[in-house]
Amino acid sequence: MSTPSKVQQVETVTIRFVGDSGDGMQLTGTEFTRANALAGTDLATFPDYPAEIRAPAGSLSGVSGYQVNFGSKEIHTPGDAPDVLVAMNPAALKTNLPDLRPGGMLIVNKGAFNAANLEKADYKSNPLDDDALKHAYKVLAIDMSMLTDHALQGSGLSSKETARCRNYFALGLMYWLYSRPMEQQLEQIQKKFSKKPEFVDANQKVFKAGYAFGETVEVGLQRYEVPASKLAPGTYRTVTGNYAVALGFATVAKLTGKQVFLGSYPITPATEILQESSYFKEHGVVTYQAEDEIAGIGSAIGASFGGALGCTTTSGPGLALKAEMMGLAVIAELPLVIVNVQRGGPSTGMPTKTEQSDLLVSLFGRHGEAPMPVIAAQSPADCFWATLEAMKIATKWMTPVLLLTDGYLGNGSEPFKVPAPSELPTFDVKYQTTPNHDGAYMPYKRDAKLIRPWAIPGTPGLEHRIGGLEKDSMSGMVSYDGMNHERMVLTRAKKIANVIEDVPDVQVYGKATGDVLLVSWGGTFGSVRGAAELLQSQGKAVSHVHLRWLNPLPKNLAAVMKGFKKIFVPEVNNGQLAFYLRGMFPGIDPVQFNRINGKPIKIVELAGKVLEVL
Amino acid sequence: MSTPSKVQQVETVTIRFVGDSGDGMQLTGTEFTRANALAGTDLATFPDYPAEIRAPAGSLSGVSGYQVNFGSKEIHTPGDAPDVLVAMNPAALKTNLPDLRPGGMLIVNKGAFNAANLEKADYKSNPLDDDALKHAYKVLAIDMSMLTDHALQGSGLSSKETARCRNYFALGLMYWLYSRPMEQQLEQIQKKFSKKPEFVDANQKVFKAGYAFGETVEVGLQRYEVPASKLAPGTYRTVTGNYAVALGFATVAKLTGKQVFLGSYPITPATEILQESSYFKEHGVVTYQAEDEIAGIGSAIGASFGGALGCTTTSGPGLALKAEMMGLAVIAELPLVIVNVQRGGPSTGMPTKTEQSDLLVSLFGRHGEAPMPVIAAQSPADCFWATLEAMKIATKWMTPVLLLTDGYLGNGSEPFKVPAPSELPTFDVKYQTTPNHDGAYMPYKRDAKLIRPWAIPGTPGLEHRIGGLEKDSMSGMVSYDGMNHERMVLTRAKKIANVIEDVPDVQVYGKATGDVLLVSWGGTFGSVRGAAELLQSQGKAVSHVHLRWLNPLPKNLAAVMKGFKKIFVPEVNNGQLAFYLRGMFPGIDPVQFNRINGKPIKIVELAGKVLEVL
Amino acid sequence: MATENTALPVYSKKDFESGVDPRWCPGCGDFSIINQVQKVLPSVGHKREDIVFISGIGCSSRFPYYMNNYGMHTLHGRAPSFASGLKVSRPELMVWIVTGDGDALAIGGNHFIHAMRRNIDLKLLLFNNRIYGLTKGQVSPTSELGKKTKTTPHGSPDAPFNPPALAIGAGATFVARSIDVEGAHLGVVLKAAAEHKGSCFTEIYQNCPVFNDGAYTAITEKSVKVEALLRMEHGKPLLFGKDNKKGIRFNAQSAELEVVTVGEGGVTEKDVLVHDAKRDDPTLAFMLANLSLKPGFPTPIGVFRDVSRPTAEELTWAMINAAKTKKGDVDVTRLLSGSDTWVIK
Amino acid sequence: MATENTALPVYSKKDFESGVDPRWCPGCGDFSIINQVQKVLPSVGHKREDIVFISGIGCSSRFPYYMNNYGMHTLHGRAPSFASGLKVSRPELMVWIVTGDGDALAIGGNHFIHAMRRNIDLKLLLFNNRIYGLTKGQVSPTSELGKKTKTTPHGSPDAPFNPPALAIGAGATFVARSIDVEGAHLGVVLKAAAEHKGSCFTEIYQNCPVFNDGAYTAITEKSVKVEALLRMEHGKPLLFGKDNKKGIRFNAQSAELEVVTVGEGGVTEKDVLVHDAKRDDPTLAFMLANLSLKPGFPTPIGVFRDVSRPTAEELTWAMINAAKTKKGDVDVTRLLSGSDTWVIK
Ligand SMILES: Cc1ncc(C[n+]2csc(CCOP(=O)(O)OP(=O)(O)O)c2C)c(N)n1
Ligand SMILES: Cc1ncc(C[n+]2csc(CCOP(=O)(O)OP(=O)(O)O)c2C)c(N)n1
Ligand code: SF4
Ligand code: SF4
Ligand SMILES: [Mg+2]
Ligand SMILES: [Mg+2]
C-alpha cells in the first residue's frame, strides 16, 4: 500500500500531451489548461497539429500534441521543453521524446505499445523495455487502455467508445499529480456531454480512475502544486490569437455601431478568424467568403467605399495575391485592415508551422510608392488589442493598415483579462455629409493631418468617382500631370508619416542603458522577454524593447538604441527586422539571431546566444 | 531673294516634334532620327504619347510628341530641353512651349492656328500674334497647310489625304536646316509607300517643298550641321528598349538551340515585348498570351519544368500579381526571367509615364524568405545585353531572375551596334539525363555552387515531383521537418549569394576618390552620367558608379563608396536605392535626390543639386 | 443615407452626366452606350446617390467618370469583387458593373463567373469589342479563332468564349444581349436589366473603330440586319427576317433548333418556338445563346433568360437578422466575456 | 527525350505507383480514384516519362506525389496555367491536371474556364467533394445552397456551380462525370478522357468522410442508384432505372427533357432520346448536364460531350512551323541586324 506523498511546490511547469489524432489530446490539453486557469496560474499553450490531412491511426505523421506552460510567475511562452510528457502511443513517444527535458517525467500508456503500433512508429523493439530510457527520465508506464476498460466494465459501451474515454484517465492522473480539485472537472464533463448522458458517466468514471490511480499506485508518486500567480484581479478567459482577432472585429462593430465587413478566403493558419467571425453576425460583423484572396480584399474595399469597416484576413500566399489590391487601397485612401497570420515560407512552404518572414513584404511588397502602417501583435490575447488599434488607425487616417500575427499566436492561447468598457479605446468614425469646397465635394481635399474625407454612396450631392489612376490632388479626377503626381506621392507618404502621433514610444524593459538591447517584434515577444528576465536575473546589463509598430517606427527608438553597446535582434526569419533597422537608422548594425525551424525561439537558447556577445 | 546662309557647326541638338495624334509626329521623328543616324551622329530619342485613348482631334489631351537628341559627342539622354520645337497645332504649342529652352527655335504651322483649334487649346487669342513669344524665342511661323496644298495641287488627292502629307513638309525643312541629304529620304519614301504609289509622289513633292522652303524663305535662316560622332566602327540600327528585350529572347533561343517560352499578358508599357516576340517564331521563341499575369508566369514556369527557357514580361500591377508565383519559382528552383517595365505607381498610377519605384518590391515583394537575382538595364540598347545576362544567370543557377527596365527605356530608342557572334556570351544549358545519387535521381542534390540539376519530362528513369511545399534537401519530397526547413532557407539564400561570382565589379567613372560619388541604377544612367560629365568638366571631384546588379550587389561597391566624402543617389522614386544601400552597408548614408514626375531626371537639374552638396 | 425613404426626384438624362466629357476615340461605340444608360436611369426608381457604377480597367471601364453617380474605377478584371462586397454590405444600393471583354473575361473571368453563380443583384454590362482597346489592339477572349492582332500576327490559336453561354453555364439569372448601334433596343434591354433582381449579365456588341473596326457590320448593316438579327421577346414566337417570315423551330428528333420559313412546307406560325425567358431550366436560353455559331442562323438579341430567385445578399441578411432577433442586443461586456470565464480576486 | 520514338514498354499498374504511400484520411474517396488512374495508364499509349501530373493545392492535389511520373504540385488554383504552358511548349507530352472543387472552381476558376475555352489538350480531373478538405471543412463553390460549414454556420447564401454546365459553357470539347465508388465506370471514363484530344473535363464525385461524409449517398447507395443514376453512352438511348424501363424523352412543345416509362402510355424505346456526345452543338450536352437539378430526374454519369477540333497547341505549332519554312534558318547576325542598318567606318 502506498505512502501518501507530500505535495511539493513548483513555480512553473511545462506539460505536453501527445497521442494519435484520434486520442483527443487537444481536449485533454484544453481541459487541463482550464483547471490551471481556474486555479489562478498564469499560462500559455501551444497546440502542435499534424500536417493538414488526417494520417493513418498510429502513424508518425498522425501524432497530435498540446503543450501548456503554467506557473505562479508571469508566463510568456508555452515553455522551451516539457517537464512532463504524456504519450498515449509509440508514435507519439518517438516524435516527442527528444523534446522532453533531461530528467523530466515521462508518462506513457503502456497498453498502446503493441507490435502493430510499435511497427507503425518504426520501433524495432519496445522502447519501454530500454533501460536507457529509465535512466534518462522518470518513467511512469501505465496500461491506461486496460485500466480504462476495467473502469468501464458493464457500462455497455463498445470497445471503440471505451477507447475514446482513455484521455480522461490521463487527465485524471494529471489532476492528482498537480493537485487540482476533481469536482470542477466532473461538472465540466457533465456540461460537455449533456447531450450524450452515457458518456457523462463513463468519462467521469475513467477520470476518477485516473485520479485514484495517482493515490493508489505502489511507487510513491511525488505530487506537485503550482500556486496561483499574481495576475491582476478581474474576469479572465483563455483565447487563441485567431479568436482574439475575430473578437476584436466584433468589438469594433459594437463600439462604432458601424458594420465590420470581413471579406476573406480560407488559408491555414488564418482560417479560424473567418470561421469565428461568422458567429458574430448579431454584433454587426458581416462575413463574406470570396472566391479567392483577391476577391476577398476587393470585396472589403468595395464595402469600405460603401462606409463599412472593411477587413481581410490571410496568410503569406494570400498576402502576396493581395498586393495589387493593397496598392489600390493606398491610392484610393480608404480604411481597410489586412490581417496576415504568418506561416513558414516561401511559397506554400510550411502551412502549419510558424514564421516571421513576412515583415519586408508587408513593408515593401507593393509596386510603386505605396506606404501603409504596419502593426504586429505580441501574444494571443494581444491580438485583440492590436486589432482594435489597427481598426482605429485605418478609420482615423483613411488608410489600409497591415496587422501581422503568426501561426504561433493564432493557434496558441493564454488568459485574456476581459476589459471593462472604460478600458476600451474610443472610436469616432465620421462620414462626410456636406460639400467641403465652396458648394462642391472634393474627395481628396485634406485636413491639417492630410486626412481626406469619407463620403459614402447614399449621400445626396456628394456623388464622386475614385480609382487607381493618379488623381488630381483635390477633385480626385484622373490626372496625368507629372508635378501633381509627385505632389500626391509625397503627400501620401507624409500622411503615413503623420501617423506617428498615434504611435506610442517604446518602453525599455530593464535599464535605459547597458551592454545589450534586445529588439524584437511580433510573436517572439514572449521568448525575448523571457530571455531578458533570465539574463537580468543573472545580473547582465541586458534590456529589451519590443516593437508593436513597424511603420511608422516609434519616435524614441533611435534614442533608446543609442543607450546600448550592442543591439541584438532575434527573429524567426533570416534577419528582416535587422535589415530594416539598418536601413532606417544609419549607424545601427544589430547582431542577429535567426531561427527558421517553424517553432518559437527557445528562451534558454536565446539567452545563451546573448551571453556569447556580452 | 535669299542670301545663302552659311552652315554653323553644333555639337548636339535636341529637337521635339509635336502635333495632333493624327499629324504623324512619331513618323516624322523616327525618319529624322534615321537621317541623323545615317549621318553617324550618336543619338537618343523619347516618344511622348498622350494618355492611352485617342482624344478628339486638336484637343490638348490629343497631343503626341517625339524628341530626339543627336550629336557628335556621346549622347546619354533624349535631352533636357528641346533647342528646337516643331509644333503643328495650337494644342501642341500650348502643352510643349514651357519645355523649349529660352532663346530656342520655334517652328509652327501657322495654318493650323484657326479659331476652332485655338479654342480647343483654350487660347483666348492667337499666341503667334504675341510679341512676348517673338522676344523669348526664334519664331518661324509657316503656313505648312497652305504650302502643302499648293505643292499637291492637281495631285488628285482629297484634302484629308493632302493634310496627312503635311508632316513631310516639316521633315523636309528640318533636313535643310540640319544639312541632311535629301536623296536618302526620297528613297525611304519610295520604300515606305511602295504599296500606295500615289503617296510616294505626293510625299516626295511635299518633302521637297519643305526643303526648298528653307533655301528660299526670305528671312536668312541659319543652317546647322552636326558632324558624325566617334561611335565605334560597325553596323548599327536603332532599337527601343522593348524591342531590344524581344531581340534578346530570340538571340538566346538561337544561341542555346532551346525554346524560349514567353508567357505574358499585355500591359502598358511592356506590351511591345510580347508583340515583338511574336514575330520571332522562326528563331525558337514561343509566345503565349495568357488570361492574366498569374497565368502568364504560371505558363512560363510550366514550360521551364518542361525544359524551355521560361520568361514573362509585365509592368508594376502585373508584377504585384506575380508575387506568389515568383515564390514558387524560388522554392522549386527553376530557370525563369521576369521582365518588369516600370511605370508610374502606386496602383494603376500613371501607365504611360516612367518611374523607378519597383526596386524594393522586386527585392522583397514575396512572402517568406524568397531571394532572387535582380538586374536593371541602363539604356534602350542595353536592354538587349541585360536580357542575355538575365537568361544566362537563370539557366546557370536554376533560379528566377528579375530584370528591371522602365517606360523610358522601353519606349526610348538609341543606336545599337550589331554585335559579332564572337561578342555574344556563350550559354551552356544542360539537362540531367542520368541518375545522380546511386541509381536514383535526387532533384535537390546540389553541386559545389549549390545548383540543383534540371531533369525534364521525357527523360526515362528520372521521373520526379516538385512543388511549393518545403522539400527534403535531397529528394524534394514534402518535408515538415523544422531543421530541414531552416537548412533549405539558408541554402537557397546562399545559392543566390553565390551568384556574386558572375557579378562584375562596378566601374568608377572619374577618379576613385573625391567629394561626391553619384550612385545610380537602371534608367537614370544617362542623366546621371551626363551630370557627372558636366560636373567633371567643371573640375568638380565628382565620380559616378552605375549599378546594373541590385542583387547580389557588386563585390567592390562598399570599398568604392568609402573613397568619397558623400554618396549621392538620384532616383525617379522616393529613395528606394538609398534605403537599400543603408540597409546593406551600415554607415553609408546617401544624400538623396528624388524626382517622381513621370519623366527622366534632367542633367542640368541634377548637376545643380549635386553642386548644392559639394 | 440611402435608407431614408424620401420621394424620388424627377430626373432627366442630364442629371446623370458628370460633366466630364468622355475621353473615347471619335466614333467609339461607347458613346452611344453611355447615352442609352443615361436615358434609362431616370426611370429605374433609384435616387442618383443610391446608384453606384464600378468598373475595371479598359476604355469601357472609364465609364464611371462620366456618370454623375458614385463610382469606382478599380483594377483590371476585379470590378465584380468590389461590387459584390458593396452590394452584400449595402443591399439597398443599385450597383452597376461596366466592363470589357478583356476586363471581364480574360483577367476578370473568375470574379465574373462567381458573381453570376452567387446571384448577387449586380447589373453587369460587358462592352464586347472583341479586342483590347486601351492597350491598343491585342487579342481578347472574344476575338475570333485565327484573328490577327498585335499579339497574334499569324492569327489567334484560341477558340473564343461565347459570353452569354458562359454566363448561363455559370448560373446567371439574367442574360441579355444588345448592340451599340441599336439604340432603342439597347434602351429596352437596359431597362429589363435594371428591373431584374439578381446576377445580371448584358453583353453589348460595341464597335472599336480604331483597333477592330467593323467587328459587327455583318449583322448591323442596314442591308443585312433584318435577316441577321433575331429579336427575342419573352412570350413571343421567335420570328425574324423580312416580314418576320422566318422562324426558329425545335426539332425533336435531333433535339436541335432549326430555321423554318412560315408558309413553306406546311410550316405555320404555331410551329415556331415561343420564347420563354422566365423558365428556371437554363437549357432553352443556352440553345439560343449558341444559335449564331451555326451557319445560316441569325444572331439573337434581347433577353435570353430572366428568372428570379432569392439573391445572395437577401439570404445573407436574413441570417444576420435572424441572429439578431435570436440573440437580442448583447452588450460589449457580455460579448467580451463569452461563455467560459473565471475570476481572479 | 520524348521525341525519340522507341517502342512502348508493357506497363503494369505498379509502374505508376511512386512508392510514397498516399497521405489521405482512412476511407477517403481519393484512394479509389488514384487506383483507377493507375490501372488505366498502362493502356493509354504513352511512356511513363512522357506523362505529367500537375495539381494545385488541396487534399486531391497531393495526387502527383503518389504517381511515378513527372509531376508538379503547384499553387492553389493555378494548375491549369502551368499545364497550359507545358503542353503548348511540349505538345508530345500527355498532361493531366488533378484538382478539387475549391482549387479548380474557387480560386482557380479563371484558369479553368480558359483551359476549357482554348481547347489545349489537357486532361483535367476534378475531385468534387463539395467541401474544402485540406483546410478542414469550409464552403466550396459546389457546396449546396444553405449548406452549413465552418465558414457558413448558418448556411451558405450562394448558389453552387454545376461543374459540367460551367465547362460546357466555357467551351470544353470533352465533358464527363463519374463517381469514386463506381470503379469500373470511372475506369471507362478515364480511358475516354485519355483518348480525347483537346480540353478535357472530368468531374469525379468524391466522398470526404471527414468533413462532408455522405455527400453522394443519395445517388450511390446500392438501394437507390439504379433509379438515381443515368449512365450515358454515345449512340445508345438514354435509359435508366430497374430493367432500363425509364428513359429520357425530348418534349418538342416545351423544348425540355422529360422522364418517360417505356411501355407506359404508348411510349416505346424509340421515343427515347439517343445520346449523341459527338455533336458539335453543345446544347444537348448542356441539357443533360442540367438534368439532375430538376426534381424527379436521375443524375447522368458518363461522357456528356466528346467532340474533336484542332487544339490550340496544334494551331500554335502550325504557325511556328510555317514561319520556319517561310523564313528558313536565319543566322544570328541576320537576326540581330534586322532590315534597317547603317555602317560607321
Ligand atoms: C493588372 C493589369 N494588367 C493589365 C493591364 C493592362 N490593360 C489595361 S486595359 C486592358 C484590356 C482592355 O481590354 P477590354 O477589357 O476589352 O476593354 P476595352 O479597352 O476594349 O474597352 C489591359 C490588358 C492593367 N491595367 N492591369
Ligand atoms: C493562395 C492560397 N489560398 C488558400 C490556400 C489554402 N487552401 C489550401 S487547399 C484549399 C481548398 C481545398 O479545397 P479543394 O480544392 O476542394 O480540395 P480538397 O482538399 O477538398 O480535395 C485552400 C483554401 C492556399 N494553400 N493557397
Ligand atoms: S480604342 Fe477603341 S474602344 Fe477604346 S476608346 Fe478608342 S475606339 Fe473606343
Ligand atoms: S480531409 Fe476529406 S478529402 Fe481530405 S484526405 Fe481527408 S477524407 Fe480525403
Ligand atoms: Mg475590349
Ligand atoms: Mg474539395
Q: SSE layout and pairings?
A:
The complex is a heterotetramer, with 2 copies of chain A (614 residues) and 2 copies of chain C (345 residues).
Chain A: E1 7-9, E2 12-20, H1 25-38, E3 42-48, E4 63-71, E5 84-87, H2 90-96, E6 105-109, H3 115-120, H4 131-136, E7 138-142, H5 144-151, H6 159-163, H7 166-177, H8 182-192, H9 197-216, E8 223-225, E9 234-240, H10 241-256, E10 260-264, H11 271-277, E11 285-289, H12 293-305, E12 309-314, H13 316-321, H14 323-332, E13 336-342, H15 359-364, E14 374-376, H16 382-397, E15 400-406, H17 407-411, E16 413-417, E17 465-467, H18 482-498, E18 514-521, H19 525-537, E19 542-547, E20 549-551, H20 557-562, E21 564-571, H21 576-584, E22 591-594, H22 603-613
Parallel strand pairs in A: 1-8, 2-5, 5-6, 6-7, 10-11, 10-12, 12-13, 13-15, 14-15, 18-19, 18-21, 21-22
Antiparallel strand pairs in A: 2-4, 3-4, 9-16, 14-20
Chain C: H1 30-40, E1 51-55, E2 70-73, H2 79-89, E3 94-100, H3 101-105, H4 109-118, E4 122-128, H5 163-170, E5 174-179, H6 183-195, E6 200-205, H7 217-220, H8 222-228, E7 229-232, E8 239-240, E9 246-251, E10 256-261, H9 283-291, E11 299-306, H10 312-327, H11 332-337, E12 342-344
Parallel strand pairs in C: 1-2, 1-3, 3-4, 4-6, 5-6, 7-11
Antiparallel strand pairs in C: 5-11, 8-9, 9-10
Helix pairs in contact in C: 1-6, 4-5, 5-9
Bound molecules: thiamine diphosphate (TPP) (2 copies), iron/sulfur cluster (2 copies) and magnesium ion (2 copies).
One thiamine diphosphate sits between chains C (57-60, 76, 100-103, 127, 129, 131-135, 140) and B (265-267, 293, 317-318, 321, 348).
